[in-house]
Amino acid sequence: MIAWLTDPFAFEFMQRALLASLIVGVLCSVIGTFVVLRAMAFLGDALAHAILPGVAIAYLIGADLLLGALAAAVVVAVGIGLFSRRGGVKEDTAIGILFAAALALGVLLMSTVRSYATDLTHILFGNVLGVSAGDLWLTGSLAVIVLVTLIALFKEFQLASFDPVLAHMLGKRPETLRFAMLILLALTIVVGLQTVGVGLVAAMLVTPAATAYLLTRRLAAMMAVSAAVGAASSVAGLYASYYLDVASGAAVVLVATAAFLLAYVFAPRRGLVAHRAARRAI
Amino acid sequence: MSDTAPGAYLSVERLTAGYGGRPALVDVHMDVPHGGQVAIVGPNGAGKSTLFKALVGLIPIRAGRVLVHGRPPGGQSDPIAYVPQREEIDWGFPVTVQDVVMMGRYGRLGWLRRPRAADREVVARCLDELGIAELAGRAIGELSGGQQQRVFLARALAQEPHVLLLDEPFTGVDVSAREALLTLLAQLRAQGITVLVSTHDMETAAQRFELVALLNGRLIAYGPPPSVFTPEHLTEAFGGQALFVGGMVVIDQCCPGHVGDGEEHRHSHEPHARPR
């Protein structure tokens, strides 16, 4: 049994994969609490796809793909924030426009590249087994920046998410905090690219946090439970990928989905069973 | 609420407020004395909520100004606290009663600062004052409507405000919660906190408030209830909705045609308490 658990990590690339998975699992899940609570799931999805042109441009000019993705994500995040400010269009409209434009630009640029083969597919679908030591450093540093910011400004983010009106009255600048949250979200998505890929990073932003929402009654607890679900899913997904020889990113997301379904049915207060029981009691 | 503070005195000077196009509120002029309690009444869409939102800076002021103690609000020394309508609150958000009331202290806490012992004492006192200390650890979504209202009143008190704005506090709560609120208003009067209450409940406005402001896009009348609730003023505010039957006034403001502006008359539709 012990051997079964330790075997995969005899290889250095698997150790790096484990570390990267854990970082991404925890980071996405923690910031995901705000994505879920502020109904920004669509935004996460849009940001994840909007990094495509950045990646394509970086590839074309031979720059680091992650840095290209990072630049694109920040540009799109700021763009969404600007377009949807008071008096402009609604936020989901702004997201829709930028999402479509960025995706189209990405496809257009990629169609000019004749043989983009492995590198670009890794960005799209993730390849946790191909994480280099350099990638790990970048991933780790970005994760530390995002988590430290979230913890330091926890009180402000909590207030601005729950009651932007009071935040405004108390001089806590909810507009600025929203920009900050968009940037942190962009950083998180870039961190997630290497391991779970563009398509699945949106799921990691939503599923563990939604699971935690069903199980907790305070924001800090929701973050902690979400992080635990994200980390556990990442590790379980990696084992599944090793022993069943399936795509690791997809396995991670499906484990998280299973956790969500369990919580949806059995959560003490908000679960299906609890609701049924409460209704029967009346 | 500190003992050394000068008397709270709110003056609204020729205030015009609202977004784009036609302002929702034009040329409103009123002075509220220290510790005064004013009921703001008027038909749906009269600008009651707009007035409150302009007072706390949520809606741009296009002309005129607001003064507290003769100075523009915004500083920490003369805060205005605002209790929003219950529809504006996300009851599913994972926060406890204690968390929500503590948010009232955030304005006095700098960025990156954690609440101190003094803040926790104020929160405990406000919870006590509203009789919800035993609910401190509960999630706000698990409470009844009356309890939820008391949580937000406690949060407003935790801001230690000089002026308190209550937006439709009598809507959607049962009779006992209504009486509890009126008792609280009496306590606030003793503490010298100036209170503005928007309401559809004309009877409560007439019987329990010393000052009434009648709005309909502008200030139609302001003063003690008998001077405000005259047939002329009511016809001006409510038009054909005001019926005079003998010595009585009936205001018909409960029609489906008015639903949707956020100020509809809900008393008869809303369940009074919602235990989950």
Summarize the structure.
The complex is a heterodimer of chains A (282) and B (276). With 282 residues, chain A is an all-alpha fold.
Please, could you describe this protein's structure?
The complex is a heterodimer of chains A (282) and B (276). Chain A is mainly α. Chain A has a single domain (2-273), classed as ABC transporter involved in vitamin B12 uptake, BtuC (Orthogonal Bundle), CATH 1.10.3470. Helix content of chain A is 82%, strand content 0%. In chain A, helix 5 (65-83) runs antiparallel to helix 6 (91-111). Chain A is globular and about 65 Å long. Chain A starts with a helix and ends with a helix. The mean pLDDT of chain A is 83. In chain B, the strands form three sheets. A six-stranded mixed beta sheet of chain B has the order 5-6-7-3-8-9, with helices on both faces. Chain B has a three-stranded antiparallel beta sheet with strand order 2-1-4. In chain B, strands 10-11 form a two-stranded antiparallel ribbon. Chain B has helices at residues 48-55, 97-103, 117-129, 145-158, 175-191, 202-208, 225-228, 231-238; strands at residues 10-17, 25-32, 37-41, 61-68, 80-83, 163-167, 194-198, 211-215, 219-223, 242-245, 248-251. In chain B, helix 2 packs parallel to helix 4 and helix 3 (117-129) packs across helix 4 (145-158). Chain B is globular and about 55 Å long. In chain B, a hairpin with a 3-residue loop joins strand 8 and strand 9 (219-223). Chain B has a single domain (35-56, 76-258), classed as Rossmann fold, CATH 3.40.50. Chain B has 276 residues and is an alpha/beta fold. Chains A and B meet through helix 9, helix 10 and helix 12 of A and helix 2 of B.
